[in-house]
Write a structure and sequence with these properties.
With 331 residues, the chain is α/β, with parallel strands linked by helices. It has twelve helices and 14 strands. Helix 3 (93-103) packs across helix 4 (108-121) and helix 5 (137-148) runs parallel beside helix 6 (167-184). The longest helix is centred in the middle third of the chain and has 18 residues, at 167-184. The protein binds adenosine-5'-triphosphate and magnesium ion.
Length: 331
């Protein structure tokens, strides 16, 4: 069943069209990714779907509720984890959750029950009473996810869940998000500009560039559409004869030459390499090296957008400080 339907969603900031008429659907229990470079419109899309920003045109329904007509129903069905860290360093993990629950008017008895549950879920029970400033990056992100889960949402929006984390912690986070999806059937919409993250986590991925979806499919289908693997052959001499020989083979989809090497596009490249080598031997083609390149999601992204995704880290902000000072009197 579809839990999110987006149709022609558009956001303009003055003359800038940040999100340009995007449409897609997400099924219950899916992990759906929006992958795109800085400024592509990922966060703006998430903000519209979570009712933080009003669309200029188009609409969407989330958990069956229209984001424009029923924003309160949408909000009570979802959890959001923002791109910019918004935890309070001077509070403990437990206090951060408590503070958030009060802000969101979770009743006291419900708070008392739910907070320990969430701490257990994000595996922070033994760190619950430690100040967040002494948490690691991964622990902070888990606490933020826990905070987004306080009211038991069916749908979780994660804006750049692993930004700024080291590769090991990032991988840990992926496993964690996967588990959440599997065990609690939580539908997850995430944005990322890490290709491997989309490849590893997402059932389906939408490539977003300049506010538009330029491709949408499962990572493997996107890669298959690239047409096959590239077998690169380094030649000891000229490539002219090799080109003639390889041109006769129907299973070679395309051939391109560069200086002393020749690239063949084939399906299941690893299985074709022995055949290619034997053919070269019979025809006395001097091969000095053979390498295989399987298309990655990065190649697919380059294919659709003509550019790579730059990896830039986001900046941390501490927006809660003022609220916290008012709440605890601590500074
Ligand atoms: N409140 C705003 N006012 C004006 N322009 C904005 C506003 N918010 C975003 N933009 C612009 O809209 C475009 C899309 O921004 P958005 O934050 O959605 O990108 P993003 O894909 O999330 O990028 P990143 O990977 O850096 O987080 C950018 O050009 C940005 O400068
Ligand atoms: Mg963003």
């Amino acid at each position: 069943m579809e839990t999110i339907k987006v149709s022609n969603l558009t956001k303009e900031f003055g003359a800038l069209t940040a999100v340009d008429g995007i449409s897609f659907k997400v099924s219950e229990g899916e992990i759906f990714g929006l992958l795109g470079p800085n400024g592509a419109g990922k966060t703006t899309t998430i903000k519209m779907l979570t009712t933080i920003l009003r669309p200029t045109r188009g609409t969407a329904s989330v958990a069956g509720y229209d984001i424009i007509k029923s924003p309160n129903d949408v909000r009570s069905s979802i959890g959001i984890i923002f791109q910019d860290p918004s935890l309070d360093d001077e509070l403990t993990g437990r206090e951060n959750l408590e503070f958030h629950a009060i802000l969101y008017r979770v009743p006291k008895d419900r708070r008392a029950k739910r907070i320990p549950e969430v701490l257990k879920l994000v595996e922070l029970e033994d760190k619950a009473d430690v100040l967040v400033k002494n948490y690691s990056g991964g622990m902070r992100r888990r606490l933020e996810i826990g905070r987004g889960l306080l009211h038991d949402p069916k749908i979780l929006f994660l804006d750049e869940p692993t930004i700024g984390l080291d590769p090991q912690t990032r991988r840990h986070m992926w496993e964690y998000i996967e588990r959440l999806n599997r065990q609690h059937k939580t539908t997850i919409i995430l944005t990322t500009h890490y290709i491997e993250e989309a490849d590893y986590l997402c059932g389906r991925v939408a490539f977003i560039d300049h506010g538009r979806i330029v491709a949408l499919d499962t990572p493997s289908a996107l890669k298959e559409k690239q047409g096959g693997d590239i077998v690169s052959i380094q030649m000891g001499g000229t490539t002219a004869k090799a080109e003639k020989v390889f041109k006769r083979k129907k299973w070679i989809k395309s051939i391109s030459k560069h200086d002393n090497s020749i690239d063949l596009t084939v399906e299941s490249g690893e299985k074709r390499i022995p055949e290619i080598v034997m053919l070269a031997e019979r025809q006395k083609l001097p091969i000095s090296a053979v390498s295989l390149h399987k298309p990655s999601l990065e190649d697919v992204f380059i294919h659709y957008t003509g550019k790579t995704i730059r990896e830039e880290e986001g900046s941390a902000t501490d927006r809660m400080r003022i609220h916290r000072a008012a709440w605890t009197g601590r500074r």
